[in-house]
Amino acid sequence: MTPAQDIKPVAGLERAVRNSWDQNNLSNSPTAFSLAAQQQSLSSSFGGSFARRGSVAENMKPLKPFNTEDVKILLLENVNKSGQDILRKQGYQVEALTTSLPEDQLIEKIRDVQVIGIRSKTKLTDRVLAEAKNLLVIGCFCIGTNQVDLEYAARQGIAVFNSPFANSRSVAELVIAEIITLARQLGDRSNEMHRGTWNKVSAKCWEIRGKTLGIIGYGHIGSQLSVLAEAMGMKVIYYDVVTLMAMGTARQVPTLNDLLDEADFVTLHVPDLPETRNMMSTAQFDKMKHGAYLINASRGSVVDIPALIKAMNAGKIAGAALDVYPNEPAANGDYFNGSLNTWGDDLRQLHNIILTPHIGGSTEEAQRAIGIEVVGEALVRYINQGITVGSVNMPETQLRSLTLEEENTARVIYIHKNVPGVLRKVNEILGDHNVDKQISDSKGDVAYLMADISNVQVGEIKDLYERLEALSSRILTRVLY
Ligand SMILES: NC(=O)C1=CN([C@@H]2O[C@H](COP(=O)(O)OP(=O)(O)OC[C@H]3O[C@@H](n4cnc5c(N)ncnc54)[C@H](O)[C@@H]3O)[C@@H](O)[C@H]2O)C=CC1
Ligand SMILES: O=C(O)CCC(=O)C(=O)O
């Protein structure tokens, strides 16, 4: 398709289709084929999970919605270079910062970008997202998405993607290390040696063989941990709100109390939900075995930390490992003190407690895999093709890729309110062309429609776009070609 030189971008449409019909047709761009090439290389180096999200047609026509150099991407919290490299190869403008940002600075920056990449610290609240007028998509370079107001984002037409399991193994390995470290009081012994004290003791130091590990939340991380723990001779029980297949000889128990009654080590692997807030508090610590241990590498909201401090001071809990906290600093530095969390100083005084700065998923392997997965499988495909498979807040939709032969075919993406009568009106507009294929799905208040329409001349795209935008149901319109 040769773009009409006379059609100019319409002011204020940046978030939707800016440059869809602009003069630099991206099919002619030097990076035009890089997506296909990138995806092919990803599918061989990262085969399993890429295949899960769809395969790449060899003859795929690159659909690029913008002049690539106009796409602005802000990456916060030290997103791995693997992801940054893919984005830069696409030709996008990428600004990568190592830290999160305070809300006022975040608002300033987010106004300008089409894509933002974050990890667990950046809070994308409704207040922040209301200012994100150009934003199309959010990439969470982690598992948890509780830091984003997912429903608000969807109602603004902003898709959110994460990496559902690329760091699970790293978390599971950390927990294994912590179980032995707690059982042998290694943190205390090491601290003493650093202070010059030789303290050779065996009292209340244990092997982990034959002990019972209680896993709360038997999802990706919990089940991976189950396998590792059994391999080291532990008995594994787990509690989950869903009935799940046991790995090895692990056993699901019907209630949380059943787990607390039996487990020598209790470890939490649940998401941050209203039901999981403070799910370990005074009553639960009372229920645990005397001298049991607690590990939390899920979210800081899940454990009532003042109650834990009391239980440890009373000798009920013999040790704990915490990787996550209700308040976590936005950057590295001397911030973990009483002014960040009121109980911070009391926590640091305890014996046999391992405190780590939210590093469960912080390994080279995990961060590299997350970078590739979120960028290659989610962000680039969403920006360039509108595919929502893997999105955590939009209905998951996919159309097979257009081929190079389908020259005058455009892909229309229409994100709209999920109300009656929309499809009829949209199809009246699309019906002036040949609708080759179409898919529509909804999630809550928001619906997502994708249609490939053929025999479209570039001069017609603007009209098509404006008619879709004029519908009262419209949240966001994009036309890719
Ligand atoms: N410390 C770190 O660096 C990391 C922390 N995480 C945290 O770990 C959490 C778990 O991760 P995954 O295993 O990948 O999640 P997942 O979604 O695979 O598994 C979570 C499990 O918890 C269960 N669950 C939900 N509510 C529950 C409740 N009230 N009681 C019992 N079980 C409940 C679910 O049914 C599910 O089986 C994430 O949501 C994230 O917050 C994840 C990665 C790294
Ligand atoms: O590595 C991070 O920044 C966050 C890890 C995490 O908590 C997650 O993946 O949910």
UniProtKB/TrEMBL annotation:
Pathway terms, separated by semicolons: Amino-acid biosynthesis; L-serine biosynthesis; L-serine from 3-phospho-D-glycerate: step 1/3
EC number per UniProt: 1.1.1.399, 1.1.1.95
GO biological process, one term: L-serine biosynthetic process
Key word Amino-acid biosynthesis present: yes
ACT domain ranges (all copies): 411-481
Catalytic activity as recorded in UniProt: (2R)-3-phosphoglycerate + NAD(+) = 3-phosphooxypyruvate + NADH + H(+); (R)-2-hydroxyglutarate + NAD(+) = 2-oxoglutarate + NADH + H(+)
Gene3D superfamilies per the UniProt record, alphabetical: 3.30.70.260, NAD(P)-binding Rossmann-like Domain
Gene Ontology terms, MF aspect: 2-oxoglutarate reductase activity; NAD binding; phosphoglycerate dehydrogenase activity
Keyword list, A-Z: Amino-acid biosynthesis, NAD, Oxidoreductase, Phosphoprotein, Serine biosynthesis
Keyword Transit peptide recorded: no
UniProt-listed InterPro entries: ACT-like_dom_sf, ACT_dom, D-2-hydroxyacid_DH, D-isomer_2_OHA_DH_cat_dom, D-isomer_DH_CS, D-isomer_DH_CS1, D-isomer_DH_NAD-bd, NAD(P)-bd_dom_sf
Pfam family, one: 2-Hacid_dh_C
Entry's family note: Belongs to the D-isomer specific 2-hydroxyacid dehydrogenase family.
Entry function: Catalyzes the reversible oxidation of 3-phospho-D-glycerate to 3-phosphonooxypyruvate, the first step of the phosphorylated L-serine biosynthesis pathway. Also catalyzes the reversible oxidation of 2-hydroxyglutarate to 2-oxoglutarate.
Name under which the protein is recorded: 2-oxoglutarate reductase
Organism listed in the record: Hapsidospora chrysogenum (strain ATCC 11550 / CBS 779.69 / DSM 880 / IAM 14645 / JCM 23072 / IMI 49137) (Acremonium chrysogenum)
Lineage, uppermost ranks: Eukaryota, Fungi, Dikarya, Ascomycota, Pezizomycotina
